[in-house]
Predict the 3D structure of the following.
Amino acid sequence: MSERKQEILEAACRVIGRRGVRGLRVEEIAREADVSVALIYYYFDGRANLLQRVLEYVNDRAGLYTETRPAAGASARERIDDVLLREIQDDPAVIENVIVWSEVTASALFEPNLRDAVCRSNERWAASLAELIRTGQQEGTVPGGIAADDAAVRLTALVDGLSSRWLTGAMTAEVARDLLQQAIARELGVPA
Amino acid sequence: MSERKQEILEAACRVIGRRGVRGLRVEEIAREADVSVALIYYYFDGRANLLQRVLEYVNDRAGLYTETRPAAGASARERIDDVLLREIQDDPAVIENVIVWSEVTASALFEPNLRDAVCRSNERWAASLAELIRTGQQEGTVPGGIAADDAAVRLTALVDGLSSRWLTGAMTAEVARDLLQQAIARELGVPA
């Protein structure tokens, strides 16, 4: 991705993180990114496509969080804890990511042209987790009888529900992470 | 609650279900309810308070869904399935309720004066489920060792996460209900 394109996506995330998606105009993102509206149209072909790329971008960015990154040689079961728990951290970059994700998802109820992108992002997220569960089953750190796809959808949906409670202040990140870790253990067993 | 007050709350739910909360003005709700703006201020003291009452109202209304209502004499464990599964139904009244709930919750990230109401509504919902879990433990239909409050928060958070996937079209209501039912069984065991 070109540097300029990435700057625009980061500016879009900052603006959405501050004020949400509803009524958001490309002009506000152009101002935040310090580029012309025309350049945003050149790269993204308008608001709907830009928001779809923003979703993919926050998905990709979530893979780069480092706080809980497990040691090299960690089992798939340990990496599962990591990829889920790293979504709930009191870190400004993580919080911005989660707000953008939650906000674009919620506004898709009122903007049908966002729904495909939201569904695809959810599927990508669940599919990558299901893959990790199957790896754990092959290496013997996750019980073989578990339906990987179902467990992955449930766990990613639970992350969304707990994140919403964390971000509105109903619970601390620590409590949300504890609840999530117990859910993972119920779905997949405890790391060996 | 006076009939007029209830009409205003129902009008507010219809408007929010159609177009969301962001930028919503009391005038639009007045028009939908066919009352004056002054009357809405008289009953609700402005937009923030009205939205808080809308949250309580959808919470109360959710208790009236009937499709899955269990037979008289059902065990607490059976009623737990019911109170959770009835949140995910292809029924216009349920869908409107879930959209309003999800939308007010999501917009609380950007409207701090809504956060307390969202937290309280979440707490009420989880507390009523925890109570039912404890009743099940007393009557012996739910295992005694389960931490009722934790299980209740996880299951209500999961309902939110699955509802979002259902309403954006990522899965059918039937699939979401199956996934939820399996999660309940993992948390609480299978109904006796």
Remarks:
- The domain at 3-188 of chain A is CATH 1.10.357.10 (Tetracycline Repressor; domain 2).
- DSSP finds nine helices and no strands in chain A.
- The two ends of chain A are 39 Å apart (CA to CA).
- Residues 115-139 of chain A form the longest helix (25 residues).
